[in-house]
Design brief:
Blueprint lengths: L4 E7 L8 E17 L2 E8 L2 E5 L2 E4 L5 E4 L5 E16 L6 H7 L7 E2 L3 H19 L5 H13 L13 H12 L6 H8 L3 H12 L3 H18 L4 H7 L5 H12 L3 H8 L2
Parallel strand pairs: 1-2
Antiparallel strand pairs: 2-7, 3-6, 3-7, 4-5, 4-7, 6-8
Helix pairs in contact: 2-3, 4-5, 5-6, 7-8
Length: 267
């Protein structure tokens, strides 16, 4: 089934929360294709159906928990009413080793849990929700427990549990390329001056930082186009500041226009 598409596919952090939110999310049937501006964990409490992440469909009878980054597309197709535990958070609330695992290439997004693992996870999420609602001191410790409960299920552990300056810059870019980030922003994140960062980045990766940033944005834009979003939506949702820059970069790196790409690859 081709998923329906939201005109605005990006979902921001709930309300005025900037680092963490926890709530119960009732769904009735279908929730269209979207992505978020933060990390999220969703635990299925009630309902049957399909949870699709990055075009992979998971039966929620088998998979009960999902852990997603800001670059993951997902839609939900339930058989009627469903209820999910929804936890959203930004990278700054987690230790670096957890962040490294969250964005590792071999990371999982869907988790099949034993009955005992599922009960422990739901109990921890309920404690987190109580602590969150009263703004308690333990909310971030409980979030770490929930995250690590899922990460322990990954078949492979990340090879590195820390970031060098350049790795930190790449991780920052991977999570924030949809925003209007500057060279100065990324250099500060890496701990270098902009001029030194530019030289070191190219020496380390073999390409300029601007080229890396453009690649991330184009890959995301291609996913949007393939899922039926308009060229304008794909442009601005991917972090490009103007359609002219987007069209020029797309043609240069992909060899065809965004419209041609959409016509050829839209599902």
């Amino acid at each position: 089934m081709k998923p329906k598409v939201l005109k605005q596919g990006r979902i921001p952090m709930e309300g005025n929360k900037t680092d963490l939110y926890v709530n119960l999310h009732p769904i009735n049937g279908f929730f269209p294709l979207h992505w978020q501006s933060f990390f999220s964990i969703e635990i299925v409490l009630e309902g049957t159906g399909v949870y699709s992440v990055n075009d992979v469909r998971y039966d929620v009878g088998t998979y009960k928990a999902f852990l997603m980054t800001p670059t993951d597309f997902h839609y939900l197709d339930f058989d009627g009413h469903a209820l999910l535990f929804n936890i959203g958070f930004v990278e700054s609330v987690l230790p670096e080793r957890d962040l490294a695992a969250l964005i590792a290439e071999n990371r999982q997004t869907a988790y099949a849990l034993t009955d005992e693992e599922y009960k422990r996870l739901v109990s921890a999420a309920e404690l987190l929700r109580d602590e969150y609602e009263r703004d308690g001191d333990c909310k971030f410790a409980l979030l770490q427990y929930v995250v690590r409960t899922l990460l322990r299920k990954n078949p492979e552990k990340p090879k590195k549990t820390y970031f060098t300056g350049i790795q930190r810059a790449i991780a920052f870019t991977e999570l924030h390329f949809k925003e209007q980030i500057s060279l100065e922003d990324v250099a500060t994140e890496a701990g270098y001056t902009p001029a030194y960062f530019s030289r070191l980045f190219k020496q380390t990766t073999g390409e300029s930082y601007s080229h890396t940033l453009t690649r991330y944005r184009l890959e995301f834009a291609k996913s949007l186009l393939a899922n039926g979003f308009s060229v304008t939506d794909a442009c601005f949702s991917s972090g490009f500041g103007s359609t002219s820059n987007f069209l020029e970069a797309f043609k240069k790196l992909e060899g065809l226009s965004p419209s041609e790409y959409k016509k050829q690859f839209a599902r």
